[in-house]
Amino acid sequence: MKKLTFLLIGFIGLAGIVNAQNPQWLVYNTSNSGLPYDFVTSVAIEENGTKWIGSWDNSGLAAFDGINWAVYMPYDFILSIAVEENGTKWIGTYYAGLFAFDGINWTVFNTSNSDLPSDCVFSIAIEENGTKWIGTDAGLAAFDGINWTVFNTSNSDLPSDCVFSIAIEDNGTKWIGTIFTMAPASELAAFDGINWMIYNPSNSGLPGGMISTIAIEENGTKWIGTESGLAAFDGINWTVFNTSNSDLPCNEVYSIAIDENGTKWIGACGLAAFDGINWTIYNPSNSGLPGGMISTIAIDENDTKWIGSYGGGLAAFNENGIPVRVEENITREYLINVYPNPVNDFATLSFEGNEPGPAIVNLYNSNGLRARTWQFAKQNNGQNNFLMDFRALPSGMYFCRVHVGNKQLSQKILKR
């Protein structure tokens, strides 16, 4: 029997990425993770890799760093999320206005304390100078941190006050998608700061007037999702993709993201990837994609696609295997023994410590999904020995995270 002893000193977080033999698909839902609700409305990724996930039904905002989940604002429907360069998260809600969160402090903007035109915030885009462009059901607002400027159908050429999507190209032009068949119209608008250009099915190649999503690729081509198909507009020419002339799985397009290779990832009644020539279609029958409409897509620096669905939770997909973040904490005052390691059936976790409260032990598999949770009462003499049952678990690498008082530590365990 091999016995491993670890002397843990200080409190230092060490993180790394594990790539070997990782799966292409992972699904996170309320049953196997800290995701608060399986109806995912929005995903944004900050520079350190943390995913910020909005959900429906008063379930709030979740943050996932690859190992840990945290849930904030569990009292409102989250409709949109954007992260600015300094790491501040901007969160649009269904009825509580706009929130800014810098990691410590929350700031709330609503119709009572600001010029935000409505407390229903559908979309947020942040331009290079830091100005936030905010789409609501009562118009478009620009906020530079001090001043608000509001555009609506009464004071501008905005075609509809219901602004559902916003994208900003490199030259600063805002592309604004409106939705709902309400007067005067639901159309696509381009605004360069002075002039407005309006596009609709009557005056352009736009296949439908209800604009649910916009993405802009590096060459400036706009990709526009509508209720009647997908359009690409290079500034002169329009190209339309629908179920009649392409492999698009359905004409209702809800989300678009573009990866570093220029491949378009299109959320509809399934997921489509289009490289400009070939289409690849993913659905629950031929992939690990969960069911439900694909409501949002974000792509991280490892080219992993984070795919939110209505009812199926959050999926992660990487054709080359999903890199899994492994964090090991070194925590003072504990002498940790895990034996045997590797383990076949049972392993003993032993440590010294007199911290108050029980010891909570979470076991995660190499995909970052929680496999087991144990809670143990600690011994009065400070020497604690806990038996962990691995018999029902498949072979592989696991990460044991122990929470004791206000301290936590992690250790790898190999199951044969």
Please explain how this structure is put together:
- 39% of the residues are buried.
- The protein folds into 2 domains: 91 residues, Sandwich (Immunoglobulin-like); 306 residues, Methylamine Dehydrogenase, Chain H (7 Propeller), CATH 2.130.10.
- It has 416 residues and is mostly beta strands.
- It is built from no helices and 38 strands.
- The chain is globular.
- 0% of the residues lie in helices and 50% in strands.
- The strands form 10 sheets. A 4-stranded antiparallel sheet has the order 1-32-33-36, with no helix packed on it. A 4-stranded antiparallel sheet has the order 3-30-29-28, with no helix packed on it.
Task: Describe the structure using short key phrases.
single chain, 416 residues, mainly beta, Immunoglobulin-like, Methylamine Dehydrogenase, Chain H, 2 domains, four-stranded antiparallel β-sheet, 38 strands, globular
Percent of residues in β-strands: over 45%
CATH architecture of the largest domain: 7 Propeller
Shape: globular
Q: Please tell me the overall pLDDT.
A: 86
User: What fold name stands as the CATH topology of the largest domain?
Assistant: Methylamine Dehydrogenase, Chain H
Let me know the largest β-sheet. 4 strands, antiparallel
Q: What's the count of strands?
A: 38
Distance separating the two termini: 14 Å
Uncertain segments are 1-21, 327-334
Give the total of domains.
2
Radius of gyration (Å): 24 Å
